[in-house]
Amino acid sequence: MSEQKNQRPVPKANRFVETEAFWQGTKQGELLLQYCPDTKQFQHYPRPISVYTGKRNLEWRKVSGQGVIYACTIVRVPGPGLDDRLPLSVVTVELDEGVRILGNVLNAAPDKVAIGQRVELAWDALGDDAQYPGFNLVEA
Amino acid sequence: MSKDSVVIAGYSETPVAFKSGRSAYDFAGEAFAGLLEATGMAKAMIDGLSVTVPLSECANPFFAVYMAEALGLSPSWLNYGGIGGCSATGGVARAASAIRDGQCEVAVVLSADAPSTNWAANYGAWRGEFQDPVGIMGPPAAFGLLMSRYEHQYGLNYEALAKIAITQRKGALLNGNAYTKLQKPLSVDDYMNSRMIADPLRLLDCVMFCDGGNAFLVTTEGKAKELGIEKMVRPTAYAEVTNFKGDDPTADITETGFSQLAPKVFGKSGLTPDDIGSFHPYDDFTIAVMMQLEDFGFCPKGQGSGYVMATDLSYQGELPVNTGGGQLSAGQPGLASGGLNLAEAVRQMFGEAGARQVANTKTALVTGIGVIPYARNWGASAAMILEA
Predict the structure, then answer these.
(1) pTM for this predicted structure
(2) Architecture of the domain whose range is A64-140
(3) Which chain B residues in 296-325 lie under 8 Å from chain A, judged by CB atoms?
(4) What domains, with CATH codes, occur in chain B?
(5) Is A62 in the B-facing interface, judged by CB distances under 8 Å?
(6) pLDDT tens digits for A7-60?
(7) CA separation (Å) from B107 to B14, B49, B77, B222, B384?
(8) Interchain contact A70–B (C-beta under 8 A)
(9) Which ipTM did the prediction report?
(10) What is the per-residue pLDDT across B371-386, written as a single tens digit (0 to 9) for each?
(11) Nearest to B90 by CA among B52, B117, B59, B126
(12) Domain residue spans in chain A?
């Protein structure tokens, strides 16, 4: 048995809408989000249509992964898959592309994380050689 | 008031219990029987039924139909309300529309749930891929994020949140329907020392999932009088919004749907915040109460802390708020939650609140909140003004 610590479940793709591109991106260390070319806006989480136009004209585009912490909390109560992760830094990041994404800050103690800090994309190990997008403070 | 005015002509509420071992049907039956008893109305008069989707039975898509069977009703109008804590006031508003449309004449708006006994909900959708891995397993983490942003933009005095919790707890001490284990006084120290759940959200900022039920009779004034019912209140204004700012990817998450609803309900009723006899805001978390005080104009946006510290929110105060303890201190009966706030509003206006009776029974304002979306403010908001 290898180390148990990071054996977090790998989410099932495509259960809600087609998300294959997102998961392929994670394998290459790239964050791909849904993009509406008609309005030149990203949307996240992914939807079955563009929430801006109502059309299914959607693409997946790579984002920089750079942004600013918009909101932050520290999850302290146990839950499924959280056992060895508490206390856990949970943040809403406003990406420079003008879209928000929920994530974890990986390179700092949760109490060092604050609104307004710059972050950049980082990767958090899941089980089965998979990884999930998270963030590092630029000035940790 | 005209004979065609739609009225709430009765209410009933079960005590709130924790891990009762009972089902939503059983609580619904208790609330329903209580409503018949309170109004003296024969079951056969009921031709409309609104049922709230419960966490404990939502795996059954025919729950509302099963409920009609369980209660022996054959309604000509049936509504199954899936907007969570907005479903009770929303059910009353939909019943009013159905009555005006002639689809029914005497409707019961029924909410019952028992999630502390049986949890049947599975939200599915995007959550498995985009929310669960981040560690947001439920509303507390989402409210921790919301509070952090509110604090960043406006400042937040935790003593004000403590005061909301403590004041509502005093109301619960006078409410025989409040969950018994919550019927003990709170101090500021109790609040401050309660454990952090999702910073800056503490345990005593949160509701506790419980079991319970409530029911309301909705009909016309003329029909109610024909049935020999004397006590009634008019829902004179109602507004709701779902997926508020849903197409704005960088909306200010401290802005709630109520900012849009407040001008609508005050405009329609012709009332102002000063006219509100008692306020019954949906209170899943203390910050929600504070934000609604701001959104409905009891104080300016961002000044909730100062307003709460300077204002007596008890049943004797300038603005009585959730006088029976609200959900925070009576316990949250699952998604029957919105009916708890509504029942207290109607009870106060009927003059039946006993030791916690408010002086001004002419008006009340009741709200509902439903669902916490991805990285935004709450998704559904509903507001109703009641007038004597």
Answers:
(1) 0.97
(2) Beta Barrel (2.40)
(3) none
(4) 6-121+210-226 (3.40.47.10), 134-207+234-387 (3.40.47.10)
(5) no
(6) 688 899 998 999 999 999 999 999 999 999 999 999 999 999 999 999 999 999
(7) 19, 5, 8, 14, 18
(8) yes
(9) 0.96
(10) 999 999 999 999 999 9
(11) B52
(12) 12-62, 64-140
